[in-house]
Write a structure and sequence with these properties.
single chain, alpha/beta, Rossmann fold, seven-stranded parallel sheet, 12 helices
Length: 356
């Protein structure tokens, strides 16, 4: 199976994974037009994309995936032959305190995007078409001490966030089964790397260590996650988009399990040296806090199908990836300051004057 898109619509492309994908895909496919549709909610940051902003093959549009008229207009106007759907509310803690927006964006928004894409595909405006849903291993629920999530693992979401992503995944499946629409679905493990919003574990620890603030660790810190460098994730998405058979689901993982507390200790130790602090000084900042409700104990991805079928496997070791990530944050303190202060929110108005 070979598919070569000429014009892609990326939703949520100003976020962490979406912006990294745009950089990677643009570099690998310089002739392909990229339209980035993002509502610029709190995690959307156009400063993630300054390096590509003036590229003639790139266009940013501020808008909501739930705006059917806008989605239809963009699909037709840009002759889109692939939709890569990142747009989502994605923070578990926020889904616990306010689940409504997660259902509105992740389920209803995805359905509107799917429906407009179906109409566009069935109109025959483009010769071939793909709709790629970017999802998460959290839809599978929690694992015990052994075993791995495979593509056949039943969905058993435990938080409002993961439930909303599972709902979108099932809608993608339904559009393929009901209409024959050429959909694809990927489910990834925890990502880390450049442009990660500082509320997430690794960038939060880096930021707090630099500023000598407490390092909050949920529960006993023994929850386990499989960590995947965002650059490896972007490469895997491109491989799936171009070579996977419609209807396929692929897990994307780093074969890289770490306990949360071990991640925090590692980041502490690496930053001791970089910040010229006494060995062990940063670990003194660790503060265990009350565990969050529905905190899944362990995630671990079996990505062997992706390697077997499409030849993808991670290029980063965790040692090289975490070192690069820490060094990136140290070198981009202005970016971090803009995010933590909220100054990044005015960048769109300053650059675009309120226009797409």
């Amino acid at each position: 199976m070979s598919f070569s898109p000429t014009s892609i619509l990326v939703t949520g492309g100003a976020g962490f994974i979406g912006s990294n994908f745009i950089h990677s895909f643009s570099a690998n496919n310089p002739a392909c037009r990229i339209t980035n549709l993002d509502a610029l909610t709190y995690a959307g940051n156009l400063k993630n994309l300054t390096a590509i902003a003036d590229n003639a093959r790139y266009r940013f549009v501020k808008g909501d995936i739930g705006d059917a008229a806008l989605v239809s207009e963009l699909l037709t106007q840009e002759k889109v032959d692939a939709v890569v759907h990142f747009a989502a509310e994605s923070h578990v803690d926020r889904s616990i305190t306010g689940p409504e927006i997660f259902i509105r964006t992740n389920v209803l928004g995805s359905q509107i995007l799917l429906e407009e894409s179906r109409k566009h595909w069935q109109a025959g405006i483009v010769a071939d078409f793909r709709f790629l849903q970017i999802s998460t291993d959290e839809v599978y629920g929690s694992l015990g001490d052994s075993g791995y999530f495979t593509e056949e693992t039943p969905l058993a979401a435990n938080s409002p966030y993961s439930a909303s992503k599972a709902g979108a995944d099932l809608l993608v499946r339904a559009y393929h089964e009901t209409f024959g629409m050429p959909t694809l679905n990927t489910r990834c493990s925890n990502n880390y790397g450049p442009y990660h919003f500082p509320e997430k574990l690794i960038p939060l620890m880096i930021h707090n260590i630099i500023n000598k603030r407490p390092l909050p660790v949920y529960g006993d810190g023994l929850n386990i996650r499989d960590w995947l460098h965002v650059g490896d994730h972007a490469a895997a998405i491109e491989v799936v988009l171009k070579t996977a058979c419609p209807g396929s689901v692929y897990n994307i993982g780093g074969n890289n399990e770490w306990k949360n507390i071990d991640i925090v200790n590692l980041v502490c130790d690496l930053l001791d040296a970089r910040l010229h602090r006494v060995a062990g000084e940063n670990r003194k900042l660790i503060t265990f806090v009350k565990d969050r409700p529905g905190h899944d104990r362990r995630y671990a991805i079996d990505a062997s199908r992706l390697k077997r079928d499409l030849g993808w496997e991670p290029a980063y070791t965790f040692e090289s990836g975490i070192t690069e990530t820490i060094d990136w944050y140290l070198a981009h303190q202005e970016w971090v300051a803009d995010v933590t202060s909220g100054a990044y929110r005015t960048y769109y108005e300053n650059q675009y004057g309120g226009r797409s």
